[in-house]
């Protein structure tokens, strides 16, 4: 196993584009590994004023954060889409569980056994790691049991066009490399009406589980979401270890991610925000990096929902204390 880390991966987590393109660049950006980067925000919408406002406000929110963040947002009713550094790869942590769920539904044609249903429910609503590992192995080539190769998960990614997602083939599903754009593509599949990848029953099932995520895990990309929408969410986080085989940039770094879908009452949108470089100052409590990542996500989330759904009363998620960390062998 190339990855031995401290992981807390209980998590919540979960259009056509038209009109003018507006772009803005934050005045400051966090370093990406060895060099500084500046991310540009791109927004399109049938409402040109909305596109410009979103672009400016997201750029301002990003500039206020020291951690690195990528996002992809879509809103079908307004034909709005916003991205920032959305092709950059991140460690997935428990956000991978939405991919595992989708791949399982794809492989089974949307009909699960009672045992698979129990595992899927626990994996999403409680973010149970053991359930995720069991399903991951079920869809893997186990020629080398120590390195389950998730061949059937890859079949789903190929069908879904999630071409920039790189599965971890040594069993550490939490180190699967994801992008905000690919994850938003998955949310569009879940919330859409196209049967070419997943049928209606499968899509409804996936959204149902994301809607039933336990109350202590509904933070993140849900912050500021209109209270009259139906909120579906899945989050993930992990702290990389200080082991010698871990890249110097990643050592001790917190990866905090969130994906949410809004449906019902005229809402039809999805938001993915991925973060890293949520550093903990020496001598400070470890949860500071976790908190900072969540604050980055929720700052961006509130900014986007405030602009798109003006005057709507927003959801204010609670944030539970950081659970005790457990050594991970599977992500």
SS element count, helices: 8
The 3D shape can be described as globular
Q: N-to-C terminal Cα separation, in Å?
A: 11 Å
Question: Residue ranges: pLDDT <50 for 5 or more in a row?
Answer: 1-37, 325-331
Quickly name the level 1 CATH class: Alpha Beta
User: How many domain regions?
Assistant: 1
Characterize the structure shown.
- The protein is globular, with a radius of gyration of 18 Å.
- The N and C termini lie close together (11 Å).
- 32% of the residues lie in helices and 19% in strands.
- Strand 6 and strand 7 form a beta hairpin.
- With 331 residues, it is α+β, with helices and mostly antiparallel strands.
- The strands form four sheets. Strands 2-5-7-6-12-11-10 form a seven-stranded antiparallel beta sheet, sandwiched between helices. A two-stranded antiparallel sheet has the order 1-13. Strands 3-4 form a two-stranded antiparallel sheet.
- The N terminus and C terminus are likely disordered.
- The protein has eight helices and 13 strands.
- It has one domain: Beta-lactamase, CATH 3.40.710.10.
């Amino acid at each position: 196993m190339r990855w031995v880390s401290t992981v807390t991966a209980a998590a919540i987590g979960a259009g056509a584009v038209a009109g003018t393109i507006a772009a803005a660049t934050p005045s400051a950006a966090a370093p990406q590994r060895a060099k500084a980067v500046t991310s540009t925000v791109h927004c399109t919408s049938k409402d040109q004023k909305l596109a410009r406002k979103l672009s400016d406000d997201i750029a301002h929110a990003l500039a206020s954060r020291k951690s690195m963040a990528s996002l992809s947002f879509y809103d079908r009713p307004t034909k709005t889409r916003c991205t920032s550094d959305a092709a950059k790869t991140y460690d997935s942590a428990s956000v991978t569980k939405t991919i595992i769920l989708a791949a399982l539904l794809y492989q089974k044609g949307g009909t699960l056994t009672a045992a698979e249903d129990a595992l899927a429910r626990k994996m999403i609503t409680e973010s149970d790691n053991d359930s995720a590992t069991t399903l991951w192995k079920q869809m893997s080539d186990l020629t080398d049991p120590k390195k389950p190769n998730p061949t059937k998960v890859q079949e789903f990614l190929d069908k879904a066009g999630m071409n920039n997602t790189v599965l971890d083939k040594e069993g550490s599903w939490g180190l699967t490399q994801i992008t905000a754009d690919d994850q938003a593509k998955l949310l569009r599949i879940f919330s859409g009406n196209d049967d070419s990848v997943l049928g209606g029953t499968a899509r409804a099932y996936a959204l149902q589980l994301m809607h039933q995520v336990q109350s202590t895990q509904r933070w993140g990309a849900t912050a500021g979401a209109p209270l009259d929408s139906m909120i579906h969410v899945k989050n993930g986080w992990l702290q990389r270890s200080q082991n010698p085989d871990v890249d110097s940039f990643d050592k001790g770094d917190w990866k905090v991610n969130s994906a949410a879908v809004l449906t019902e009452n005229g809402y039809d949108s999805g938001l993915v925000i991925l973060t890293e470089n949520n550093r903990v100052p020496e001598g400070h409590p470890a949860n500071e990096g976790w908190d900072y990542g969540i604050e980055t996500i929720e700052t961006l989330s509130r900014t986007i929902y405030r602009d798109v759904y003006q005057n709507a009363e927003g959801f204010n998620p609670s944030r539970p204390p950081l659970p005790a960390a457990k050594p991970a062998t599977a992500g």
